[in-house]
Amino acid sequence: QSALSHCPPELQDADGPLLGLAVDGQPVRMPAAVMWDGIALLGKPGGGKSNSMHGIQQWACAHSDPDDSVVVFEAKGVDSFPILHRLNPRMRFMDLADVRTPMISLLGEGDAWVRAQRFANLMHGAFTLLFGHGARAGRALARAMACALDDDEARETVERLHGGVNERSGRPAVSDGQLFQLLNAPMNKMGLLAGAPQLTDPARRTVTWERLLEHGVQLAINTGDPARPGVPAMGEDARRLVNALLFQGLRLQIGESCMGWQERGRRVRVFVDELTEITGADGRDEGGNVAAVEW
Fold first, then answer.
1. 222 with 273: CB under 8 angstroms?
2. Nearest to 293 by CA among 77, 277, 281
3. How many CB atoms are closer than 10 A to CB 57?
4. pLDDT digit string (tens) for 125-166?
5. Is the pTM of this model over 0.85?
6. 3-state DSSP assignment of residue 17
7. Where are the beta strands (DSSP E) in 10-109?
8. CB pairs under 8 A, 24+ apart, for 146-152?
9. Higher-scoring residue by pLDDT: 244, 9
10. DSSP string of 223-292?
């Protein structure tokens, strides 16, 4: 009813997702080949970007083999989840704030809960001592931990935490002021994660990107307000941080797991509604997760 133009000659024989109808009622499609290079939908709020993306997602799901994957980062899950469920019966759903839905493990394979708790407690203790009693005490703690750990990789990690020691002088390689600046951002991010207990609820089922890509999945992740009534929403900064971690984790796992997939005809299609939702709590214009967005 709103068609205003004729179908361009370049799209006359296109075989991809439906874009709309021309003024003469002829369906207008995009070439399926352009899906490989990526698609951006631009427009004013309320202009139909999300609806157009839902149509493209439906086409992608319908043209996927059982071992292909379609991953959707959905900023408006409360409105979009019912639509996606109707359009794509195989679609599975995850809500960051809802412990009744599965969660992507931020630590990968293994006992994610135990590892996450151990890591969080270790970092919390080190940071509290470091900035509650001074950098010198924090360095002493880190040094003692490094000496006590019977693991070279663990010792190197602890050394990096407190800046290490200059081998010639025996003095800290990083000044107390520099150390505070280096650790201030990670401290804030740890605080954000600690303030979102639903992410690591021991009763919440977890799955890794590796397993999902290995078997193939159609998954929609609600990165916005909870879709189920009565579920408390996550804080804005915590939500943005987790969104960035999930997207970056998927990006890295695709690099590790999907080598040679193009030659074998396997595909992973990723959709993001609102790019700002995955650029993290900082560096929205530069740095941060912008490299992942460009990818």
1. no
2. 277
3. 25
4. 434 433 444 555 555 656 665 565 566 665 666 666 666 667
5. no
6. coil
7. 18-21, 27-29, 69-74, 92-95, 103-104
8. none
9. 9
10. -SS-SSTTPPPPPHHHHHHHHHHHHHHHHHHHHHH-TTHHHHT--EEEEES-GGGGS-SS-SSSSTTHHH
